């Protein structure tokens, strides 16, 4: 087993050797420099924490696959966020002719309805849309499938839509 100094030295070499290349790979998927750097930094944090269990002869492959998978998850999350945004825009919550009091009442109604959602559904909605976690991340945390997460989101959005329409 490596001592802390050797681990740090090997990790530093690995980081210097791969950082730019991995940022470039992430950028090919995400088309965003800062987000690409964040992905690479996240993966290197994981590598640091798992360093003693990783095989050095396959580390390059591990890094590339990890970057690819993280980027694909982020792209999927972007799609979900866009769908979520579309769902809320379908509610016509903030039409131009709506005054601030109407907007405030609508937001209060949404908050009230969210509080009444089943605990698990409310938690999933919060994690996906306010904490920007992917369906897959929430599914792993709750030990359910990503499809189950999606069902909770669909359920929550349906309830919110109905509540807002009733209050109009």
UniProtKB/TrEMBL annotation:
The record places domain RNA polymerase sigma factor 70 region 4 type at 109-159
Alphabetical UniProt keywords: Sigma factor, Transcription, Transcription regulation
Q: Which InterPro entries match?
A: RNA_pol_sigma-70-like, RNA_pol_sigma-70_dom, RNA_pol_sigma70_bacteroid, RNA_pol_sigma70_r2, RNA_pol_sigma70_r4_t2, RNA_pol_sigma_r2, RNA_pol_sigma_r3/r4-like, WH-like_DNA-bd_sf
User: Has the keyword Transferase been applied to this entry?
Assistant: no
* Top-level division of the source organism's lineage: Bacteria
NCBIfam families, alphabetically?
Sig70_bacteroi1, sigma70-ECF
Q: Which PANTHER family match?
A: RNA POLYMERASE ECF-TYPE SIGMA FACTO, RNA POLYMERASE SIGMA-70 FACTOR ECF SUBFAMILY
Similarity remark:
Belongs to the sigma-70 factor family. ECF subfamily.
Would you tell me the protein name for this molecule? Answer: RNA polymerase sigma-70 factor
Lineage of origin: Bacteria, Pseudomonadati, Bacteroidota, Bacteroidia, Bacteroidales
């Amino acid at each position: 087993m490596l001592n802390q100094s050797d681990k740090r030295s090997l990790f530093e070499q690995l980081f210097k050797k791969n950082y730019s290349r991995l940022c470039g790979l992430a950028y090919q998927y995400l088309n965003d420099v800062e987000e690409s750097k964040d992905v690479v930094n996240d993966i290197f944090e994981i590598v640091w924490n798992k360093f003693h269990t990783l095989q050095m002869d396959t580390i390059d492959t591990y890094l590339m696959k990890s970057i690819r998978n993280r980027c694909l998850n982020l792209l999927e999350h972007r799609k979900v966020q866009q769908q979520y945004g579309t769902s809320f825009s379908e509610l016509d919550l903030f039409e131009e002719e709506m005054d601030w009091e109407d907007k405030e009442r609508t937001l209060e109604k949404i908050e009230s309805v969210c509080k009444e959602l089943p605990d698990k559904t409310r938690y999933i909605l919060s994690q996906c849309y306010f904490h920007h976690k992917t369906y897959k991340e929430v599914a792993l945390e709750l030990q359910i499938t990503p499809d189950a997460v999606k069902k909770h989101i669909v359920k929550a959005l349906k309830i919110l839509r109905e509540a807002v329409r009733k209050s109009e």
